[in-house]
Specification:
3-stranded antiparallel sheet, elongated, about 50% helix, 12 helices, alpha/beta, single chain
Length: about 350
């Protein structure tokens, strides 16, 4: 080796020695070791004690959401129907009157994409990045912990149902009594959802818990029996042929109550109806505008509630037919719009 070549080699070695970053770049980075739970969750979290789901995505947050969605989907498959909670139910949960589990550990992003009611007892335990393109997250439900939470909620709700029914029987033949049973039915439905989740988590505990709760059919039947004992007197001014009174009677009957013409009963539905004729400028069409105002009255408490206004107009070449169409339109609104308003009132009537 010539003196010149020896000098170049020594210089190169000296440069590398003084520049460890350069030397590091030459070293190949070792691939991250894949945790066993990525492909075999049960190895880390045994199936007899845990329910798991591994989600993966290009970023950590999305992997977390997918893992939680996977757990939630297990329960959603067992719960085929759910209705939007009434304002009364939301308030009762907030006040602690109806059992609910607060899952504050989850971010707003997760709450927007996953029903957190399906995540009781669930935690995202671990994350892993493969060093290239994918993040992995494992969501874990501790069966014993979740079963304890659900059992407590079911028992608390069963006690709330018993208290509601006991209070309702003190004044059963009233809207308050009806509303109490209606609310009890809502709580029973909550418990049914919890029992279905328990059937996934700890099936053996379900029969004992179920025996402490009334069935939805049982409570619904009692609610309808109460409704049948509550007549509602219907008084409609300017009701030719009684068609509108019949429509109101059908509306209240759709909720189980009895339409009546006995003015001595506790509840009275009164409505004043007006029809007004107007002619189109071309003289070819005659219109009939209608307006019905009214309310329900509790004669015992001297309180008015469920105020309503139903209005619209119909047209035809002659006024009698235009008015007939107006009456038909008003009948339809009574059966649909008024019935819906009355139902919403009862659904959100606050009961103790």
């Amino acid at each position: 080796m010539t003196v010149a070549k020896t000098a170049v080699c020594l210089a190169a070695c000296y440069f590398v020695a003084l520049n460890p970053a350069f030397a590091a770049k030459k070293k190949k980075t070792a691939a991250p070791v894949m945790p066993e739970w990525v492909n075999a969750p049960a190895a880390a979290y045994p199936n007899d004690a845990y329910i798991t789901y591994v989600g993966f995505a290009p970023d950590r947050d999305s992997a977390e959401v997918k893992s939680l969605q996977g757990i939630a989907a297990i329960f959603e498959q067992s719960i085929t129907s759910s209705s939007e909670a009434s304002e009364r139910m939301v308030q009762a949960k907030a006040a602690g009157k109806v059992a609910t589990a607060s899952e504050n550990m989850f971010s707003q992003n997760i709450r927007r994409t996953v029903d957190v009611d399906n995540l009781i007892g669930v935690e995202v335990k671990e994350f892993w990045f493969d060093g290239q393109t994918s993040w992995y997250a494992i969501a874990v439900l501790d069966k014993e912990k979740a079963a304890g939470i659900y059992s407590d909620m079911i028992r608390k709700n069963a006690a709330a149902i018993s208290a509601l029914i006991a209070n309702a029987r003190k004044d059963a033949a009233s809207f308050d009594g009806y509303a109490a049973f209606d609310f009890a039915e809502d709580i029973v439905q909550e418990n049914e959802r919890y029992l279905k989740r328990m059937a996934v988590i700890k099936p053996g505990a379900v029969p004992s818990l179920k025996s402490s709760c009334p069935s939805p059919k049982e409570i619904h039947a009692q609610k309808i029996e109460i409704a049948k004992r509550i007549p509602i007197c219907i008084v409609v001014e300017n009701d030719e042929g009684g068609r509108l009174a019949a429509a109101f009677s059908e509306a209240v009957s759709s909720l189980g109550f009895r339409g009546s013409y006995d003015g001595g009963v506790r509840y009275v539905l009164t409505s004043s109806v007006k029809f007004e004729r107007s002619d189109a400028s071309d003289g070819k069409t005659t219109r009939c505008r209608y307006n019905a105002d009214g309310h329900l009255l509790d004669t015992k408490a001297q309180q008015q509630f469920v105020p309503f206004t139903l209005s619209g107009r119909e047209g035809h070449v002659d006024y009698p037919e235009a008015k007939n169409r107006a009456v038909k339109s008003l009948e339809a609104k009574i059966k649909k719009d008024f019935a819906g308003q009355f139902s919403a009132y009862l659904k959100n009537l606050v009961v103790e």
